[in-house]
Design brief:
This protein is 11% helix and 35% strand. With 422 residues, the chain is mainly beta.
């Protein structure tokens, strides 16, 4: 049957089938309907159907022996399992008589009874623990612990304390937090059927920060975290080493499922003031754990490290010769300006006086000695210190002061100022 893993219905009828191995249908988990009627079956094990979820099992018109081996059929018929209650099932006694299955009475043939030393087992991480499971009944059951998936090191030790009691100890060594919440199952089996008992394992351990992510923009900025610990730890936050207080801008949302706390530190429109290191601290009675990440939301408007320094000013010193030359040029220019100003003042003051209008103290003889021009009191803007001291009837020729006498008749005659032709 291993080739038909998807088989859902199986009918083997009127084939003279006498027996079926207990694990014949182990590879056919999808079987829902099995018809084995009208065959020559004398016994059948419940283990054949242990892993199946049967809706209907047809077993009429077989020659089952009345024995403890088919006691499970009687129990299923009583409980209405797989619609056996709707069938007329018989078994054959030792004397060959046929007996309805529901009337079969077999002594010392019952389901096993089971008990465990702990219903709930609580240990700390790293501790050792021992749990005992007792199975009793007739026939005496096989007892064992189902530990598939258990991470802690474990050993099984069987003890037969007295008749009809089968005990088995399960020893857990260096219990790990990975086994917190694990269900330990003890089973007891005999030909009639199976019974089981469960033990809930609780492991206390210090907190652990499983993950702490950098800020991610969702509806809000979120620093996502996952924390484990048992008992569940309390959570606190630090911002740059200082306690973080929740506000309209910053708040924590998380949910807790068993030993796991998962959620977000949320930021509503954070600014550069919210940049910095964020530390998550998880604490329970067994210890403390923390982890830090850097949260960066916005750049500073005027970051110090981005301000460009003022470029240095380079001063080039010219040679001394150039400086001296410039000084000479500036001095000459200043002297020329002063001289021009003085000349301008002197011309304004003395250069425009006529014979009748100016009262100048000096008259200048221009040209030849026999000139007929009148002697005007004009100095043509040229003044010497000695001329300033001359009297009103004085002419300065060169550096000599000569007294001058004018002839009044000269102006009255109206002669011209030019010499006569000779």
């Amino acid at each position: 049957m291993e080739l038909y893993t998807g088989l859902q219905k199986l009918t083997i009828k009127n084939s003279g089938l006498r027996s079926i191995q207990p694990r014949a249908f182990a590879k056919n988990p999808h079987l829902r309907y099995i018809n084995l009627s009208s065959n020559r079956l004398t016994t059948l094990s419940w283990q054949l159907f242990q892993t199946l979820s049967l809706r209907e099992l047809r077993l009429e018109q077989n020659f089952f022996n009345c024995s403890c081996d088919i006691r499970w059929m009687q129990l299923w018929q009583e409980q209405g399992e797989a619609r056996l209650n709707s069938q007329n099932l018989y078994c054959i006694n030792a004397d060959g008589s046929q007996l309805p299955l529901f009337r079969m009475n077999i002594s010392q043939c019952d389901l096993p009874e089971i008990s465990v030393s702990h219903v709930n087992l609580t240990v700390r991480e790293g501790d050792n623990a021992v749990i005992t499971c007792n199975g009793s009944g007739s026939p005496l059951p096989d007892v064992d612990w189902m530990v598939t998936g258990l991470q802690s090191i474990n050993t099984h030790q069987t003890n037969l304390n007295w008749t009809n009691v089968h005990a088995i100890n399960l020893t857990l060594v260096n219990v790990t937090s990975e086994d917190n919440g694990f269900t330990l199952t003890c089973i007891a089996e005999n030909v009639v059927g199976m019974s089981n008992a469960s033990v809930a394992l609780t492991v206390y351990y210090p907190p652990r920060v499983v993950s702490l992510e950098e800020p991610e923009l969702r509806l809000e900025h979120c620093i996502e975290f996952v924390v484990r610990g048992n008992p569940p730890p309390t959570l606190n936050w630090l911002h740059n080493g200082q306690p973080l207080r929740e506000s309209k801008i910053i708040h924590v949302e998380y949910y807790q499922e068993g030993e796991i706390s998962e959620g977000c530190l949320l930021f509503n429109k954070p600014t550069h003031y919210n940049n910095g290191n964020y530390t998550l601290i998880a604490k329970n009675p067994l210890g403390t754990a923390n982890q830090t990440i850097n949260g960066h939301f916005l750049k500073e408007p005027f970051p110090v490290d981005e301000v460009s320094p003022t470029p240095p000013i380079t001063v080039t010193h010219k040679p001394e010769e150039d400086t001296f030359g410039v000084s000479i040029a500036v001095g000459l220019a200043a002297f020329a300006c002063v001289l021009l100003v003085v000349l301008f003042i002197m011309i304004n003051k003395y250069g425009r006086r006529s014979k009748f209008g100016m009262k100048g103290p000096v008259a200048v003889i221009s040209g030849e000695e026999d000139s007929a021009s009148p002697l005007h009191h004009i100095n043509h803007g040229i003044t010497t210190p000695s001329s300033l001291d001359a009297g009103p009837d004085t002419v300065v020729i060169g550096m000599t002061r000569i007294p001058v006498i004018e002839n009044p008749q000269y102006f009255r005659q109206g002669h011209n100022c030019h010499k006569p032709d000779t």
